[in-house]
Each structure stands twice: as C-alpha cells, then as structure tokens.
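During the no-cost extension, the postdoctoral fellow (Dr. R.K.) reprocessed legacy sequence entries with the updated structure-token encoder. One reprocessed record is reproduced below for audit purposes.
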Amino acid sequence: MIQPNHIRPIPPSNHHQQAKQKPDWRERRRALRYVPALLRMVWQTHRGYTITIVALRIIRAFVPLATLWVAKLIIDAVLLMTKSNNPNWTHLWELVALELAIVVLGELLARGSSLVESLLGDLFSNHTSVRLMEHAATLDLYHFEDPAFYDRMERARRQTVGRVSLVSQLLGMGQNSITLISLSAAIVSYNPWLLLLLAVAVIPSFLGETHFASLEYSLLYRWTPERRQLDYLRYVGASDETAKEVQMFGLAPWLIERYRALSDKFYDQNKRLSVRKALGASGLSLFGTLGYYGAYVLILVKAAEGLLTIGTLTFLASSFARSRDLIGGLLMGFSGIVEQSMYLKDLFEFFEIQPTITAPTNAPPVPQPIREGFIFQDVGFRYPDSERWAVRHLNFALRPGERIALVGENGAGKTTITKLLARLYDPTEGRILLDGRDLREYDVPSVRRAISVIFQDFVRYDFRFDENIGVGEIDLAKPYFAHPHMIADQQSVGAERLPGNPISDAARQSLADTLLPRFANGYGQMLGKRFKDGVELSGGEWQKVALARSYMRQSQALILDEPTAALDARAEYEVFVRFSELVAGRMAIIISHRFSTVRMADRIIVLRGGELIEEGSHSELVGRGGLYAELFELQAEGYR
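Re-encoded structure tokens follow.
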C-alpha cells in the first residue's frame, strides 16, 4: 500500500506523457545510472560509517552457512551417540557452544549494522536536505513561479528521507549474494538440479513484483500535483495564518469536503492497484511453493535411499529453503532498486536543473561607487510561457543620488522593473547598462549586494525580532544575534542604544524600535504565532520591520515597493523624514500609490500597459494633464 516540480523552461510535457503509463525497461535501466551518484553522496556524508557498514555486512554474510553447518554436525553427532556405547558428550557441548556463539555474534552484528545504518540514514537525510536548499538557492526566480518546478521539487524533497534505504538494500544484496554463493556451493556438491528448481521457485514472483512496482511509481508520479494540493488544503484548514478567514467565511466544511474528495479519489486508485498486486502476488507465489516442495521431495528420496545422513538432509533442506529466500530476496531487491532508482531519478534530476541568471567567468563586481548609474535601453520583458509583454520599449536612466518614483495602475510593470534591475530576471529584449556595461556582465551576487529591495509582499519570518531585521544583511547581523552587547541592548529598552549595533540602528531609523515596549524579550522576542511565546504584529508593524531590513544594507541603490502602504499618516511622515536622510547621495526607486510619497521623488515615471508614457517632476506632470494628473486628482478627491 502506498502512503498518502530565451529562459530554459522545465519540459513538463515529456514527464507527464511518461507518467500516463508505467515506465518501460529502457527508462528503468536509465534510472539505474543514478545509483553510483547516490553511493558517492553516502560516502561523502560519513566515510567512517560507510566503511563500518560494509565490513559488518561482509562478516554477517557467512553467519547463515556457519550456523547451518554446525547444526548439521550437531544432528550427526547426536545420531552417532545413539549408536555408540561411549557417547562423546564433550564434543556435543562444544558444537552447541559454537552454534550459540555464532548465533550471538550474528545478532550482535545485526544490531550493530542497524545502529550504524540508522545513524548514517539520519546524517544522509540532513546532508541531502542541505544540498536541496543550497541548490534551490542558485535557481532562477522563474523556477519558483512555475507549478511544474514545484512538482519536481516536491518529488525531490520526499526523497531526502528514506532514500538511504536504497544503500542498505544494496549492501543487503551484497551480503545475501555472498551467503547464497556459499550455500549454493554446498547444494551443487550434492545435487545440481536443486538450483534449477530454485529458479522456478522465484522468477515468476520477481517478474510480478517488478511489474507492480513500476505501476506504483507511475501512480505516485501522476499524483504529485494532487498530493501537493492535499498538503495545501491541510495547511489552509489548520493554520494560524488562515484561521480568521476560515472561521469568518465558514470555509471549514468546503475545505474538508474538497480534501475528502481528493484523498478518496487517490485512495480508490491506490486500492485498485493494491488489490491487483495482492491477487497477482498470491497466484505467482504458488510457483515458489511448488518449486520448494519439488526440491524437498528430491532431497527426501535421496535420504530414504541412504545416500544422505539425517544431518545432511537437514542441512540441504534448510540450505535450499534459505537459498530460495535469498534468491527471491535478491531478485526482489533488484526490483526494489530499480523501483527506488525511479524515485532517485527525481532527486538527481532536481540537482540537474541549472540557473540561467549567471555571469561570465571572472565577471567584475559592481563598481564602488557607481558613477553613471543604470540606463534602460529599449528594454522589454515577457514572463516565460506568457504571450503578454510585462514591460516593453523602456528607455530611462537612474543616476547616482537620484530618487525616482514609478507610478501606474496595477499590472503596469512597476515591480517587474525592480526585478530586472536586481537581475532576478533578464530582459527578453534590449539591455540594462550599469556604468556603460551590460548588467549581465557583472558578478550576480555583487549586483544583488549593491541593491536593497523591500517588496510589497515581503516575508514575515517566524524568527526573533533581531533576526527579522538582520536578514536584510545577514553576514553583518549574525555576530550580533547572540552577542553580549546585544543582550545588554535588549535590557535597555527605551534607553540610549549602544553605538555600532547595526540591528538597533536599523530599528531606530525605520521606527521598528517603537515596538520594543511590547516585547518581554526585547530584540530576542519571537515574532509570529508558529512558535512558543511568539508575538503577532499588525500589517503596519510588520512593514516597519521590513523597512529596517533595507536600512541594514549598505547598498548603493534602494528599491521600496509600497514601503508605507500599511502605515498611518504620522508614521508615514516620520518614516520619510528618516528615509530622505538615508537615501542622501544614493539612488532610490519608490513604487507607491500614495502621491504624498511620490512627490518626494526627483523624477516620476508613469507606466501604462508596461510602457513608459510620461516622465517628469510632480508639478510638471500635473501641469500636463495626462494620466498622472488624472490619477492625482482622483486620489485628491478622496480627501476633500
């Protein structure tokens, strides 16, 4: 039963086409190429554990043969004693003690293997999760806006836990192979036909298991989007972030019914597959039973004819039964490896996704200071898989020390411009110059360090207050998170802030420090309701925290997308008094629907349908009577 992802796009059509039917042998064989890569990852996770596991498995491989052989000797010794007038009890007890020692050793080795493999599994899961996060951090923003990418990332994420079991399976197969070779040598020495009967006993079951394993993978692959929907419905139905609307709008019955319908549909498909598998496995297992008893009868006949001792009879019968189980386990294990390799393919295919926002080798950093600024030359951008141009034919400049405002109705392309400026996307046509050089020629991290952006949909981290501010310049902030000066600063709420502390300085400049009287733990206060003792903030309070992040960065250009939308009039005025001081001598782009905010810009760019239609100061644009003047009058009318 199964338990209830010009820019290079992810080719979903090919994957979804494959998912409509079970993978063929060619696809399964291709998936096996990821097994060596998995072994390298396990080796890199912890070499000592890996070597220990291999050594323990090799030693354990000879325990079954040794146990069966000593048992044969014991039986023969007992039979000999019954016929002897002077039984050798010492020899018998030595054999029993030897068998006991072998069994105890085997148990200890098994426990040791289980312990080390469990520890390695935990480390591997952590190591793989870190690699996933590291790789995801290198990918383009476009990837995270594509549902097909999320499906692939979800499949990869599910492989971080438990996929090390494939390594245990491989080691188990190696161990069982050694055991099988040793037992087979003993069986062949008595009767080679027994091996043929072994094959008859296990091959049909192996083929059936392989068939149904591929069907299970196909079902899980097809249902990746639906399983993500189930996860999301669980989240929406039981989350502090959605609880207010769920209760006010009475959404719970609708969400529950939607979840029930989707989960029942998955259950029905899974049930049909599981029933088919159970019936098929039951039929095929009959071949195994017939093969075993055919071999058993052959051994009994030999024993009845006096060709085998009772000890040898027991040894051969046990060896055959054990060999049948081993061959079946090896074949099923191979089937399982093929099956798991299909899942493993999802993990490594995620690692193969490459970013397109890159820079040439030895790309120069952004100049310090920027001398000429940014120039948009006939810039156009169209989001991947979209026929509509988000912006087009943009021609304007942002000079050092200049403040410009972007104005326009929703969807006019304002936020897209900021993403292009920060190289979260590259233009589809045209180019952006920085000090006369194409922005794509600069080192990407250098470009992003030179620009500070606070988006309208900024993230509300369920971290501490100081961490929520410090993420704006994390390398600068980390030494202060648990620093003694930081603790002292927390105890002096409302007092003079310690000099040289960038976190408290940023909080003061953005007015986020006005929240401190509410916080029992000062800058160490946990925000949000996800964790214990967390404090939830209002939209305006969160916006002050987000603004503090921009003050953390010593960037040469500031981009604020609706920076005061949730602030009251007094707080907005105080923020911009400080903001004017902050941006002195630096470039700034402000996106706002509030004309009280826009008026502070040196130049205003008016956008409509992704194109620049007006440009000038506030007074110039009002005097022209165009779109800006129209929007200004509409807003002013609301205050009259």
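Residues 1-21, 484-498 have pLDDT under 50 and may be disordered. The longest helix spans residues 252-304. The remaining legacy entries will be reprocessed before the final report is submitted.
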